[in-house]
Design brief:
Radius of gyration: 29 Å
Shape: globular
Mean pLDDT: 82
Number of strands: 8
Low-confidence stretches: 192-201
Oligomer: single chain
Structural class: alpha/beta
Strand content: 5-15%
Strand order of the largest sheet: 2-3-4-1-5-6-7-8
Length: 749
C-alpha cells in the first residue's frame, strides 16, 4: 500500500451540491468543528474516536461543509424560487465564449436585459394592483359586490386610489431588495475586500485578485435597479391619471421616463473602481428616484375627479408590449455579439453550442419572467372574475368589469405552450436518436472491462451496459436547449403584434376562412396555454413552500440553485447571493493556514472540484508549493469547460495544472452521469495541454469492479456511479502519492 508521507499532510474534502452532512463527507459518526460556523464549517473526527472513512495512513482528514450556505435557511431557499428569473439573468453573462469583452458591450447588454427583468417584475405587480384592482374592478358594482376589502376604495377618487395602491409595488420592490441585503450579510463580504483593477470587468478571470468580492458591484446595481423599479411605477401611475392637455402631468411623465433613461445609461457604464466612486455616482440617482417617486405619488394623491374608465389602465398595454419588444431586441443583439465573439478562437476552449450559452440562458430568464408575470395577472383576474377565465373563450356577462390582461401576456401564454411542446418533442427525439450511439459506446466499454463473463452474470452485465448508456445522456442536452432558443427567437415575431394590440384570437379571426371557428379555436388554445404556464408556475411555488417546510425538499432545491449561484452578482443584484463569495476566500484562508503545518491535498467531489479549482487559482505562490489537488466525479472537463469556456475552459485548466506543477489526480467512472475525464486523449471533446504531465491526471475506475459474485460475498459489487469515490483503493493511492509530492515540494521550497 506504499509508505506514509514524509511530513504532516492534510486531506481537505470539499463536497458537491447538496453534499449532505459532515458525517457523510467524512464517513464518520463523531465529529468536531475546528473552524468556521454553522453555515460553512471545517470538521474533523473527534480525537480518540477513530479515523475518517477512506483515510490514508499518515494523512489527517478534514471536511469543509458549505451546503448550509444555500440549503440551511428555509426562508432563503424558498425565496430562491421567486428569484429564478433574476438568477438566470445573472448567470447568462458567465457563459460568454471569450474572457475579454471589448468595449464592455456584452456585459452592458446583459445588464440592460437584467434591468428589463426588474421592470417586468414591477410591471406585473402594477398590472394586478393599479390596473386590475384599481382601474378595472373597483369602478364596477358587480366586481366589488361581496368584497368589503375593495368596496372602500370606491370612496376614493381615482388619483388617490391609484396612489394608495402604488404602495404595493413599492413594497414588493422593497422585499426583493431586502432579501438581497439580508442574504449578503451571511454569504458575502467574507474577509477584507481586495482591490480590483479598473479594467477587471473587461479582462477578468478566476485568478484575478478580488474576483469573488462583488459587494461594490452589487451595491452599484442594486440602487440602479431600485431606480428602474420606481421609475416603472412612476411612469405607469402618471400615465394612468395624466390629462393629455395638462403640461404639468406630462412634465412628470417625462421626468419618470428620464429616470428610466438615466438608469439605462448607468447600466451601460463600467462599475466605478472604488466604493467612493460608487457612492458619488449613486447620490444623484438616489435623489432623483426619491424626488420623482414622491412627486408622482403626491400629485396622484391630490388629483381630484374620476376619469372615464374604459378598458385597461391607460399606457399599461403599451408598456407591457414595449417592454417585451425591448427584451426581444436585446436578445437579438446578444445573439449577434456572442456569435461574433465566438469566432475568436481561444486555445483549448470548445464552447457549448458554439458559444450561444449566453443568449440561450438570457432567453430562458425572459421566458420565466414572462411566465411569472402572466400567471400572476391571469390568476388575479380569474379571482376577481369569480372563477371565470377572462378571455375570448369565456366572454364576461354584461355589467361585469372587463378584467382584460394585456395582449402581450396572451402571446406569452401561447408562446409558452408552443415552447413546451416543441422542446419536449426535441428532447424526446434527441434521446431516441442518440440511444443507438450511447449503446454502442456502452458495448465497447463493457467488452473492454468484462471480456469473459459467465452466463449467469449476463443480466448483471446488461444492467451495467444500460447504466453506462444512461450516464452519457448529459452530452445530448444541446439540441433541446437549441430548440428552446430558436422557439424563443421565433416568439420575437409577436412583438409587432403586441405593440399594435392584436391578440392571438384577433389574428386567427383575420387570417382564417371561417373566422368565428378560427377565433374560438385560438381562444381555447390560448386559454390552455394560460392554464399550462399557470400550473407550472404554481408548481414551482409549491416547491418553494415545500422547501420552507421540508429539509429534504430544501436540499433538492438547493442542489439546483448551487449551480446558478456559484458566480458573483455582476449583472442582476436581486439574484440569489453568490455562496462562492464566502466559500472560496474561506477555503483560501484555511488552506493557507493548513499549509504551514504540512502538505495539503484538496479533495473536491463533483461541484466541490469547481470550488477547489477556484481556490487554487486564488492561492499565493508560497502556498501553492505545498498544495495538491484530487478531483473525483468532477464535471470540470466534461461540463464546465464547455459551459464556461471564458473562465473554466481548457486554458484555465492547463494553468491550474501548471500552478500545481501537475500535482493533480482526477478519478472518474464511465457510469458517472456528472463526472468525467479532464485531459484524457481518448475524449476528443476534452481540453488538451502542451505539457506531457497532463496525461497522468486522469485515472479511470472500472465500475462495478466485477459483474460476478466474489466467493466471500453474497451479492455482486454495486454500481457506484457518482458516489462514493473515497472507498476505492485508487483513491487512497492517489492521496498517498499527492501527499508525498506536496511534502517533497514543501521541503524543496
Amino acid at each position: 500500500m506504499g509508505t506514509a508521507p514524509a511530513c504532516n499532510a492534510i486531506e481537505l474534502r470539499v463536497h458537491g451540491v447538496s453534499g449532505g452532512t459532515a458525517e457523510k463527507i467524512l464517513d464518520h459518526p463523531i465529529l468536531v468543528r475546528v473552524a468556521g460556523d454553522r453555515y460553512a464549517g471545517f470538521y474533523r473526527p473527534r480525537p480518540g474516536s477513530g479515523a475518517a472513512g477512506g483515510s490514508t495512513d499518515g494523512v489527517a482528514v478534514e471536511a469543509y461543509r458549505w451546503g448550509a450556505l444555500t440549503a440551511g435557511a428555509a426562508v432563503r431557499t424558498a425565496s430562491m424560487v421567486l428569484l429564478l428569473p433574476f438568477m438566470l439573468g445573472n448567470l447568462a453573462v458567465w457563459l460568454r465564449p471569450t474572457p475579454t469583452d471589448r468595449f464592455g458591450l456584452l456585459g452592458a447588454l446583459c445588464r440592460l436585459l437584467a434591468g428589463t427583468l426588474t421592470a417586468a417584475f414591477v410591471l406585473s405587480v402594477i398590472g394586478v394592483t393599479l390596473d386590475l384592482v384599481g382601474w378595472q374592478c373597483v369602478p364596477y358594482d358587480r366586481c366589488r359586490e361581496g368584497r368589503p376589502y375593495l368596496s372602500w376604495l370606491d370612496e376614493l377618487p381615482m388619483g388617490p386610489r391609484l396612489a394608495l395602491l402604488s404602495l404595493i409595488p413599492l413594497l414588493a420592490l422593497w422585499v426583493i431588495w431586502r432579501i438581497g441585503i439580508r442574504s449578503a450579510r451571511a454569504l458575502e463580504g467574507f474577509g477584507p475586500p481586495a482591490p480590483r483593477p479598473e479594467t477587471s470587468e473587461l479582462t477578468e478571470s478566476l485568478n484575478t485578485r478580488g474576483f469573488w468580492d462583488d459587494e461594490r458591484t452589487t451595491a452599484w446595481l442594486r440602487q440602479i435597479h431600485v431606480g428602474v423599479g420606481a421609475g416603472t411605477l412612476d411612469a405607469s401611475l402618471l400615465a394612468g391619471i395624466a390629462d393629455p392637455e395638462a403640461t404639468v402631468d406630462w412634465s412628470l411623465v417625462v421626468a419618470a421616463i428620464g429616470l428610466l433613461g438615466f438608469c439605462a445609461v448607468l447600466l451601460c457604464l463600467p462599475v466605478p473602481a472604488t466604493r467612493a466612486g460608487v457612492r458619488r455616482l449613486l447620490r444623484p440617482l438616489r435623489a432623483a428616484t426619491v424626488a420623482v417617486t414622491v412627486l408622482a405619488l403626491g400629485y396622484a394623491a391630490l388629483r381630484a375627479g374620476n376619469p372615464a374608465v374604459v378598458g385597461q389602465l391607460p399606457g399599461y398595454e403599451g408598456a407591457a408590449g414595449g417592454l417585451i419588444a425591448g427584451q426581444g431586441v436585446l436578445l437579438v443583439l446578444l445573439a449577434l455579439v456572442t456569435m461574433v465573439r465566438a469566432r475568436v478562437t481561444v486555445p483549448g476552449a470548445r464552447p457549448f453550442l458554439r458559444g450561444l450559452g449566453t443568449p440561450i440562458v438570457a432567453a430562458a430568464s425572459v421566458t420565466v419572467a414572462s411566465a411569472f408575470a402572466a400567471t400572476l395577472v391571469f390568476r388575479v383576474a380569474d379571482l376577481l372574475d369569480r372563477g371565470s377565465v377572462p378571455g375570448p373563450a369565456h366572454p364576461d356577462p354584461p355589467g361585469m368589469a372587463p378584467l382584460d390582461p394585456p395582449v402581450a401576456y396572451w402571446w406569452a401564454a401561447l408562446a409558452g405552450l408552443a415552447t413546451l411542446m416543441i422542446v419536449a418533442v426535441a428532447a424526446l427525439s434527441t434521446l431516441v436518436i442518440g440511444r443507438r450511439r450511447r449503446r454502442r459506446l456502452a458495448d465497447r466499454i463493457v467488452e473492454q472491462d468484462y471480456p469473459d463473463v459467465p452466463t449467469q452474470a449476463k443480466p448483471r452485465l446488461w444492467i451495467v451496459r444500460e447504466t453506462i448508456a444512461r450516464s452519457h445522456v448529459t452530452e445530448e442536452l444541446g439540441p433541446m436547449l437549441l430548440a428552446f432558443f430558436l422557439i424563443s427567437s421565433l416568439g420575437l415575431a409577436t412583438i409587432a403584434l403586441d405593440l399594435i394590440g392584436i391578440g392571438p384570437v384577433q389574428l386567427a379571426a383575420e387570417l382564417g376562412k371561417e373566422r368565428r371557428q378560427s377565433a374560438v379555436l385560438a381562444a381555447y388554445v390560448t386559454d390552455a396555454g394560460v392554464w399550462l404556464i399557470s400550473l407550472l408556475v404554481i408548481g414551482l411555488m409549491i416547491l418553494g413552500f415545500r422547501s420552507y417546510r421540508s429539509v429534504q425538499t430544501r436540499r433538492v432545491v438547493a442542489a439546483l440553485w448551487d449551480l446558478g449561484d456559484f458566480w458573483p452578482r455582476t449583472v442582476h443584484p436581486f439574484a440569489p447571493p453568490c455562496y462562492a463569495a464566502r466559500a472560496v476566500p474561506e477555503l483560501v484562508k484555511r488552506v493557507s493556514a493548513l499549509s504551514r503545518q504540512g502538505g495539503v491535498i484538496i479533495s473536491g467531489h463533483s461541484h466541490g472540484s469547481i470550488l477547489a479549482a477556484a481556490t487554487i487559482l486564488q492561492l499565493p505562490p508560497t502556498v501553492l508549493r505545498r498544495v495538491a489537488l484530487l478531483t473525483h466525479g468532477s464535471p470540470l472537463g466534461r461540463i464546465y469547460a464547455h459551459l464556461y469556456p471564458a473562465y473554466l475552459g481548457g486554458r484555465t485548466l492547463c494553468e491550474l495544472g501548471e500552478r500545481l506543477d501537475w500535482r493533480w489526480r482526477n478519478l472518474w467512472r464511465d457510469t458517472d452521469p456528472v463526472g468525467g475525464p479532464i485531459f484524457a486523449p481518448q475524449q476528443s471533446a476534452q481540453p488538451t495541454c502542451n505539457s506531457p504531465a497532463a496525461a497522468s491526471v486522469d485515472i479511470r475506475l472500472r465500475d462495478p469492479r466485477s459483474v460476478t459474485i466474489d466467493p466471500a460475498d453474497t451479492v455482486p459489487p454495486p454500481v457506484e456511479r457518482h458516489w462514493p469515490y473515497h472507498t476505492q483503493p485508487e483513491y487512497q493511492t492517489a492521496v498517498r502519492e499527492l501527499a508525498a509530492q506536496a511534502c517533497e515540494a514543501r521541503s524543496n521550497g
